[in-house]
Amino acid sequence: MMFFRVLFIPLGLLLLGGCGDTRLKDAASLHQGAIVIDTHSDFLDRSAIDGSHLSDDPIGAQTTLTKLKEGQVDAQFFSVFVPPAFEDYGFSRRADELIDRLYAEAAANSDDVEIVTSAAGIRRLANSGKIAALMGIEGGHAIEGDLGKLEHFYRRGVRYMTLSWANTNAFADSSGDAPRWGGLNTLGEQVVKTMNRLGMMVDISHVSDETFWDVMAVTTSPVIASHSDVRGIVDHKRNMGDKMIRAIADNGGVIQISFYAQYVDQNFADQFEVAKAAAKPRFDALKQRYGDDPVELDIQEWSLEISIEQGLTPPSVAKVVDHIDYVVKLGGIDHVGLGSDFDGMGAPPAGLENIGKVSAITDELVRRGYSGADVRKILGENLLRVLAQNESRAEQ
To answer: pTM of the predicted model, to two decimals?
Structure first.
């Protein structure tokens, strides 16, 4: 036995740490050849606020055309996120405006970006130099309780919908709000069934635990968590508990790991809560100043939260990959992917400040000994499988 220990320990060190340059070259080649998919960017919301375009690269922007190319991203899901403050303006009206914005961006950058609506579309463009752009609605309030509007957004190209955001809506309770229905109500069950029929992926990020379990009882297609992390590392109700992870694996779904610091790193989350509490007078002042303009108040409050995050020490890339490890060990390699939440955060992980640096995930996975096949699954193949299965079951 001593002989084998002497033989194999140095070999392991050679493969994982003894030849760092070789490892990095192997990781770079693997990343370049893989289909890299990110299922959640808030570029459209940021763009609507700051007026910048995908081809621009303003300071602090986390998703831009330049950065997508640097990160060798093959497919980017752009979030159609309508803040609850737009209730009087019209949720679906705002969602349509954001979709229009993405179509305009794709038209303006047609040599580099193409809107696609299927797994086959992603594969067609993969490694071609052209980025596949897809859409997911973040927050079921965007359909305003109307199944017809759900179908309308599907026809416009939306391929997943997060059943709730941080607010409980007309059919689903949220993890970030007071419960109203005890999970899904009857309309919510119809929403899930309609999404299954259409081939639109059901996204259970943000939903309450009760809503999650109701979804799992109703859906006949694999679900996704488009941008979530795990409670076993950070005990937050936005994260997925162990039973949830196992249920998603049993369902054939996938958890797309978010890079959002508050859900990635417990120490960061604790510091943020302290800092946010200390900033209460500043939040109160914003309410006093913008109380009659809910949209502007939402923008100002979000800007303040971002500035608070930026004053804290961000987590490392390794912390993000810890969440991937956790899902792999509990649910299996086929049920985890990447859902950054870029442009929706103020403190991205150190070394992973924007989508242009997403290869840092690949580097860390290779360093930890993941095989090339497994890395490719995490980077995009798992999500492609779930999207394709939603499509095929809808056809059936």
So the answer is: 0.93
